[in-house]
């Protein structure tokens, strides 16, 4: 049981570390993707899509 708890704590700690390290990158990528999608949609609405 203690082994399971130790593994759980380790997984939570690793997850927190990964989230802390990768959250800015993921946020930037999501922002870039949303901006690109909005730009594409706007362009399509503008009738520039051939």
Descriptive notes:
The protein is an all-alpha fold and 50 residues long. Helices cover 90% and strands 0% of the residues. It is built from one helix and no strands. The termini are far apart. The model has no long low-confidence stretch (mean pLDDT 85).
Summarize the structure.
Helix content is 90%, strand content 0%. It is an all-alpha fold and 50 residues long.
Keywords:
50 residues; rod-shaped; 1 helix; mainly alpha
Q: Report how far apart the termini are.
A: 63 Å
Task: Give the biggest beta sheet.
Answer: none
Mean pLDDT across the residues is 85
Unreliable sequence segments: none
Number of E-type strands: 0
Secondary-structure content class: mainly alpha
Total of helices: 1
Give the helix proportion (percent range).
over 70%
Nearest-angstrom radius of gyration? 20 Å
Indicate the proportion of strand residues.
under 5%
The global form is rod-shaped
Q: Please trace the helix and strand order, writing H or E for each element.
A: H
Write the SSE topology.
Elements: H1 2-46
């Amino acid at each position: 049981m203690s082994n399971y708890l130790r593994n759980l704590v380790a997984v939570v700690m690793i997850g927190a570390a990964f989230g802390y390290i990768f959250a800015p990158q993921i946020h930037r990528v999501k922002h870039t993707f949303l901006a690109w999608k909005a730009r594409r949609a706007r362009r399509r609405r503008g009738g520039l899509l051939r």
